[in-house]
Amino acid sequence: MPVRNLFILVAAVLLLTTSLCYGEEEKAQVRLLFSGGPDGGTFQYFSNGISTRLTKNISYLQVRNQSSAGSVENIRRVNRGMADFGIVYAGDAYLARNGRLLNDPTVYNNTYLLAHLYDAPAHLLTTKNSGIKTPADLTGRKVAIGGAGSGAAASAERYFRTLGIWSQIHTLFIGYSAAATKLQKSEIDAMWVLAGIPNASIIQATTGTVPMRLIDTWEPGVKVGLFEKNPFYRRVVIPAGTYNGIDADCVTFGDAAFWVAGKQVKETATYDALADIYSSEGLAYMERVKSTARSMSPSTALKNITIPLHSGAIKFWSEQGLEIPDVNTVTE
Predict the structure, then answer these.
(1) Which residue among 82, 116, 228, 296 is least enclosed by CB atoms within 10 Å?
(2) Around Cβ 190, how many Cβ atoms within 10 Å?
């Protein structure tokens, strides 16, 4: 065989081998871990729902859901590469990136935003016969604030410390459902929930035999400058009638739940994940998973942004016509 023909044959074989290898690489499975929240909580519904759909619909992705304590633990896991996706609160994400988490000066800068999922107002619930009408009345009382490492517990400590009453409250780090049961049994005096409305545990507590009251938290926070120091919080009104027996509007403050990814996650994976979940079919699916997801839409996906976007999110949302916000300021 002439040398020239031999060279062409070898080149063809190499090209075919490279193409096959490339194709195999493209089809290689990508395994990702999604850190959600406590069993039965809203975070866990969202993380499990997203994980299940992505694994089913995107051929190269295998996404496994894992329970966690909540927002703060998720930030730490994703930032350290122990998880790839997570759900976190905007406030915790902002403070973590700036080294301002309570008792933790670590700068968590390996966590990036994919999308805003839903708003999460603070609920401070007590019994009508407790004598508690303002947050200041919690002095000396037992208050359940969510599990240790949760966004709820972090927000409660942030709020009550700023009010100057944190050390005077007997705090219990227990989950929402357990807190609702204890409140109905008068084993605690109040419970704190940071979650979308309506919240299942507040429904649980307010449909029992003991009448309940929601406490306004906005004005006390304004008076001590809480929201100037923490600009990610927003004024929220929980309308009268949202919960059984609550016949007056509750003026409180709210955080926002974010879907985030670690910097180690490839741009293609985050882009494809967003394209699937934010399709019309994906959004309808998420609403079936949890009614809180009805607020999800492309128009709200970059609401209240407090951290930089992942490169895959920048590409996807830019293609949807959204302006990528400046994360040096907290956006409306």
Answers:
(1) 228
(2) 24
